[in-house]
Amino acid sequence: MTRKAILFDFDGTIADTAPDLARALNRQRIARNQPLLPIELVRTVASAGARGLLNLGFGLTPDNPDYQAMREEFLSFYAEQLCQDTRLFPGIPELLEQLDEQAILWGIVTNKPARFTRPLMHLLGLHHRAACVISGDDTAYTKPHPEPLLTACRQIDAAPDHCIYLGDDIRDVQASLAAGMKPIVALYGYLGDSDPPETWGAFELISHPGDLLHYI
Asked: Taking the complete model, does pTM exceed 0.85, yes or no?
């Protein structure tokens, strides 16, 4: 397996999903007479999914007896308005066009559940172009475990050491390194609330999707 490929995280890397995630969280807060959280605050934990957002919005962790019910409510609200304000990041359409023109395979590897990833890929017009889409419940483990990335490699017949993985969270870098790939950090993404991206051990950091072309 020698073909090259580019793999992408989804939330905070390919698509700006934070507005719709924030809407679902704020619906929960409104129902409990709590003030709205600003989108800027939600963006910092959007890549952490329901777990991170419920911790931000209500201080809930998975060991809290109310967590599961709140998680199901959040996911239900999110599913109702899945792609109202979600958009591809500026520069992503042009980057993907360049990859397609150069016949470079690209795919998605995300911790986002397939019930959301698959319809979003359709709604954003990407479903027929991606060489693979690995969602958070498609493998036994999620990032930072390398299994999702290695599964993607097997699906597209690409060697891990010939792949670049672009993500916006420290778990993306950890999973990429464990899989034997080159991790690149999308500084335009959400980045979480962990240590600065410069300390994550990535191969490179980019400020715009188009910068990725320099490393292909």
From this structure: yes
